[in-house]
Amino acid sequence: MTGKVLNYFVCGHTARGFYNISESALPTLNHLFVLKGDSGKDSSDLLWGIGKELVEQGHNVEYLHSPFDSKRLDGVVVPGLGVGVVREMIANGARTLRCRRDTIDFQHENSKKADLSAQIEEKCKQAYDSFSTALAIHDEWEEFYIHNMDFDKANQLTDELIQSFLGEKELNKKAVVKHRFLGAATPQGSVDFVPVLTEDIQNRYFIKGRPGSGKSTLLKKLAKKADHKGFDVEVYHCGFDPNSLDMVILRELGIAIFDSTAPHEYFPARESDRIIDMYGSVIAEGTDEKFAAQLADVAQRYKGKVQEATAFLKEAKLLQDRAEQETLSVSPAILAKIKEEVLTEINRISLKS
To answer: pTM for the whole thing?
Structure first.
């Protein structure tokens, strides 16, 4: 029997700079294997290989994807064993986690990697500046709806929804709360894994609405209440603004509720799927029509800045690819040896658990 796979991001290119929430994403790990000094491609190939074999052995595996290239991995986690194999960047973000760490050094004497890091960093900074401007424009966008919101209705809707989910239920344990990103801004555009993350969830709630219509606030209140009642919570932050939430999953209750608007817009596909219409429920009727011209202008300016930021990320990725081309890859034989050693150690851990 093969294991199940979850895919998500723990790092992101955001309006608040490069954001790493790996520490709060991996709170239950006891053992980290840290890949140090690699080119990116080598470690990703190794991680895919390790993950594939662990899944075939029947372990549930989580893939931590790279915001520079969502087809590459920054880490592999086996939550059932408390084990992770991650790139150094991820390990540094989780520096205070109390767990055993084994370092695997990819550096070798023949490396001729071009020193393009300063140029890559500058392009990323330009992207973050553009995203930051886009966030300021998004705040303008939200104001139109905030000023036309019935806050009493919004609070009532939130309270009723939380009550329907949790009611008088309570678990006599400390909740495990994991923070992740729903998606990421990549050089290829916005990427998310909502279908995979919610595949086994019985009840999915699609929140529809406008910027500033209370979607994130609803999710924050739900996550806090579920934590207080002892339910494990997966908290998915917005890949554009990490201070905002886009999804909460309560797997013990079979519930996933998420912001289902662009750039991660989905629609019900099962009989049990439900829509929560924040615009129709809490925003004054006719708001879209009343401010149509202003809303069109702010939406266009926002889109332009996001596209500008994505273009800078593309340039950074091209520089990163060039740097990798000038780095001698680790030989397949060495990668195979490292893979075997890591898997052997993980299997030992599995036998002890």
So the answer is: 0.95
